[in-house]
Design a protein that fits this description.
heterodimer; A: mainly alpha; B: 301 residues; 11 helices; 69% helix; 0% strand; elongated
Amino acid sequence: MQFWHYFAIRLTQAFFVVFLVVTIVFFVSRLVGDPLATLLPTESRRAADVEHLKETLGLNDPLFVQYGNFLWDLAQGDLGTSFRGGGKSAIDVIGDRALSTLKLGAAGMVFAIALGAPLGIVAALRRGRAVDWLARFVAVIGQATPSFWLGLMMIFFFSVQLGWFPTSGAEGFRSLILPAVALGLLEMVAIMRLTRSGMIDVLETDFVRTARAKGLSERVVIRRHALRHALLPVVTMLGLSLGRLIGGSVIIEIVFAWPGIGRLIVDSIVQSDFPMVQASIIVLAASIAVTNLLVDVSYRLIDPRIRAGAA
Amino acid sequence: MARPTAETAAQAPVVAVERRRGGRRWRRRLGLSVPALIALALLVAGVGADWLATHDPELLNLGGRLQPPIFDGGSWDHVLGTDQVGRDIYSRLLHGARISLIVVGIVVPGAALVGTLIGLVAGWVGGLTGQLLMRLVDVQLALPAMLFAVLLASLVGPSLRNVIIILLIWTWPAYARLVRADVLSLKERDFVTASRAVGAGPAWIMRKHLFPNVLNSIVIIMTLEVALVILAEAALSFLSVGAPAGTPSWGRMISEGREFMHVAWWPIWLPGLALLTIALTGNLMGDWVRDALDPRLRNVR
């Protein structure tokens, strides 16, 4: 019963966060910008056009009425209509793009975990040895490397010079590798460091010493006793990682011309397609909020000792 | 940093610090002095850009485009070569350092101030106010700052002022989270209870008891945030939502040199390496400060 109570509270919080994001995006865009200025350049403006546009976009209504209509449409799953492309509904355009971004984010995550966790474990087991130094070196450099610059460098070496990968686009598995590495590097470093320090701590605990003392093989001690404990904080961090990956994918999508939602947003801005920008940002924010919610909830299921408190 | 761990870490008893052995002292000193020297160099470069630069950083010279640096067959006239429109890269790098310094100088203290105040209030008052303030932190986590930056820039145009505003919005929650977690555990401690018992008001307790106790954490995050802010500014400039076109920001230089990548390596390598070096320096100093002040926060980032 207590779990459902907690779940309900977290759900309400997540909902509230998405609502705040929607509100902020709505008011910031309405108060700071003028959709008419971007749609109709002043020099070629005709009064009739302006009136017509104002009427169709509902800009004649007071701001709060517009906000109410916006929320009402949103509640029915209508995220507005794109200014371009023959008035397609924004949600249709976003669908494919969001899938693309998700694919990139997931690939980045797989890279980060597949390389970060084993490297962290090995570094901890061989503490102070060459592997450990190498891992820490990679971590220090990786943390300081701008992801967009790394992306460009990789395109230069692996695509232009060596011709191993396509320079851009999303055609097949090979085109996924470079952007996934550029995107996942920071998270890889974070996972590596967390695994390493967790592992080092756990190897000094009493229960590991006991396990060794009763004659278990080192393999069993590591796998059955140490690893499970050391990876717990890593699991917690993964949710935040996913959020950061989705956010970070904007710049990587630009570098690699990846047809995801981040590039959609930047393209829409260039074309002054405002409903599209708004809808994309809302979809992204909502998906990150849902991820965070799922992680918090699942963490409570995995480890009942955690009382998430009032945070 | 995940929320549950942040809280448990902050409430955990202070673990005895593993004392460093004497033989490692030199390494510790070296570990600080090298980054400190680089940081000093950045400061000199940024402050003295006007005197140290050999050319006007925005002066075009279409006749002398893409001249290589001196160590790759170039001339002393342009030590680090010229970019795709013939501007002197050495002079641009120096002025780029100045832009980074300005951004860091405003954003880091500003975000620390805002984040600390909000964290103090949210932790001390708790209840509905605390909840609301913490949801603001969540909004920042759910709304990717990069997107917000793009949105804002599309509406009001790219400018350095907007970059600073965006980075402030981006970075304050880190302070708020940590300060709140610290305050939550501090307010149960005896010395705070005692202070309340003799009639101290909330403002007094915050100023005299809570703030001095969270100061270490704040300083640690501030040092660690320097690299983050520099890289973020570069990323925004790279996306053309930061410093306006032509400005010698390092991120801008990389994005402008991008199309000539296959002809000339220096226009994107040099600013990239500058960024990497500075970010590395910031992180190393941050680690050093953290180890010196509070080793409990090893996993804070």
